[in-house]
Amino acid sequence: MLQQILIHTPVYVWAILAVLVWRGTAAMRDREMPVRSLFIVPAIMLALSLQDVLVKFGASAIALGTWAAAAAVTALLFWKSGRSRTLPGTAPGSVIVRGSRVPLAMMMAVFFTKYAASVLLAVLPHARQDALVAAGVCALFGVFNGCFLGRLARDVAAVRSGAAGPAAAARPAQA
Prior knowledge:
6 helices; single chain
């Protein structure tokens, strides 16, 4: 059965996976970028998750409410805990983002949750009407989006405060 699922997966799905792996591995290295670029991956992951929630389960209160609650709680936890991953950049309006494995892990989590939910609903179409399935899938998407949004909020707060992360003090002064 697994072989049939993999064979019948559209080619564009594997292309999306390749792009996500490429972006995730790029995020493992320190890089300098404009502040506005911090928003790209969270926005794309947010769009992918919400699109999947709406297509698979509709705009029901259970689906959207579960997603929103999970996203809000997780975003708050990520925003309030941990440190910013940014340092002041060399150019105005830019930041240096420390490399991390977290973006790759989160992108893979969103991708494989979307994939598993699609397979589940293709094999068991009636599961689309099951409130428990909808709540579980939507909660997972909410948690993943909350991670992205909480990290983004923490990084933006650091940039706005001018400190751009606790490691900024350890950075050598520019002469």
